[in-house]
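Module 6 notes. Inverse folding takes a fixed backbone as the condition and produces residue identities as the prediction. Think of it as a translation problem where the source language is geometry and the target language is the twenty amino acids. Below is one complete input and output pair. Work through it position by position during the lab.
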């Protein structure tokens, strides 16, 4: 299921989102973790600050689904590795949205680029 244009506009305007991949039982949501998000084209993307060793990232890749809350809404979603060919465009979106943050450099590093995630509606 695709995001609507209005949903993406609202999500893009938000500072970040809370991500809750399923736990190993496949039905219980994990503890919500605040992360940055960016919209590129018709897609929503996130990266783990600690790269592929991040707990939420491991759960998202293992379970492939969960929930996010952003812009006052809660969405059931699927998680998949982002197409590596989009990493430069995702970097640019992070740079535009979070230019003034001291945390920007780690979010566009090789470690986080390798763990880019595309979030889609379930």
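Target side of the pair, the amino acids:
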């Amino acid at each position: 299921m695709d995001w609507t244009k209005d949903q993406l506009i609202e999500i893009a305007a938000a500072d970040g989102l809370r991500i809750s991949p399923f736990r190993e039982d496949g039905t219980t949501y994990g503890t919500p973790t605040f992360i940055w998000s960016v919209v590129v084209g018709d897609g929503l993307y996130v990266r783990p600050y600690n790269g592929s060793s991040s707990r939420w990232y491991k759960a998202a890749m293992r379970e492939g689904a969960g929930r996010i809350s952003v812009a006052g809404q809660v969405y059931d979603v699927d998680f998949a590795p982002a197409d590596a060919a989009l990493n430069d465009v995702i970097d640019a979106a992070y740079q535009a949205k979070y230019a003034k943050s001291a945390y920007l450099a780690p979010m566009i590093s090789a470690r986080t680029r390798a763990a880019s995630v595309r979030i889609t509606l379930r």
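Reference fact for the lab report: The mean pLDDT is 97.
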